[in-house]
Amino acid sequence: LEKISINTAGHNSDILTGESWLNVMNYIPGNNVVIITDENLLGIYGHEFPPFPVVPVTPGEGSKTLHKIEELAYRLLELGIDRSGFILGIGGGVVCDIAGFLASVYMRGIRFGFVSTSLLSQVDASVGGKNGVNLGIVKNIIGSFNQPDFVICDPTMLLTLPEDEFLSGLAELIKMGAIMDSSLLREIEGKHSAVMKRDVPLMGSLVKRSVILKAEVVNEDEKEAGRRMILNFGHTFGHVIETNANQKHGFAVASGMVVAAGISMNEGLLSAEELKYLTSILGSFNLLKKFSIASEVFMEMIATDKKKAGKDISFVLLDKIGKAMIRKMSISRLAGSYDLIRHLL
Ligand SMILES: NC(=O)c1ccc[n+]([C@@H]2O[C@H](COP(=O)([O-])OP(=O)(O)OC[C@H]3O[C@@H](n4cnc5c(N)ncnc54)[C@H](O)[C@@H]3O)[C@@H](O)[C@H]2O)c1
Questions:
Q1: What does the DSSP 8-state code read for residue 63?
Q2: Which of 181, 183, 196, 262 has the most neighbouring CB atoms within 10 Å?
Q3: Is 41 near ligand 1, meaning CB less than 6 Å away?
Q4: Which helix (H) or strand (E) holds 153?
């Protein structure tokens, strides 16, 4: 068990890696608790949930709506959850986003904690205090920054994850190595078969290393005014691939990382060998799916974001493997650079 602290605006949040989720009772109040989960997790783990009312949501992105938040708030009222209540989210990124947002707005905010069950949520979604829901097709546009009291990341829970969900989370783990720690990347590469078998001690240790890295960034820049942006490595192009090629988040981000690393090479930062190295690791885990998206489509969608920011894109590049940097780039420069490397995809 390792406790990693996130300290923001006077609030302390503990990420407990390697902790058994069966010890969750040690971290929550003895009453006035409600559990929010999804139907898959309820089916697999529900018989061992703590003895509190359970409100399940339908698995998947479709549950991340304001309407669902309203529905859940009614349930909490019916259950008599008051200002001293506690929401325990047990699930992946979708449950964490919903439970965290509900806890932030219900009665102007009540306490909450997570048992984080997917690899993506253990390394990313449940760490850092961002939560929220979608508005139509616009992702995560309504939400808040609010840290849970605790997050339990139990590596044994990864054993029941569907294969593509595991791989999708692995892409975010690889991203953390690519932007902050080349030795993490080397370990994932060197222990390929143990990773694929989801070896429990190994996965516990990789998640721990990744959470320490993310906590360092969040402690420095909770609201993403600067350094936290490096966590978006691969996401600018990744989001367009996710939407247009209908790929799972991590797979789309994996291809987005290859594009961003290729652009880093064009900018004179990364070497061709380093680009090849990152591409080969992602490929070895079958994370690189073919897609065909015209550069005009990319640029149009990226430009929509640009309008929001009102200036150039803050694009995340790799200075070298294990070190990211942010550079303001114009859409036309990005487009030109993408055209130079698209044959690699
Ligand atoms: N708030 C943030 O900082 C942040 C960061 C990254 C992603 N996200 C959000 O997270 C969501 C994606 O997260 P996700 O990939 O965990 O999605 P998810 O919560 O939908 O989980 C994926 C699937 O795996 C199942 N599952 C989860 N854990 C399981 C387990 N241990 N065993 C068996 N099945 C299990 C779920 O039921 C679901 O069907 C997206 O909505 C994304 O926007 C948020």
A1: G
A2: 262
A3: yes
A4: strand 150-153
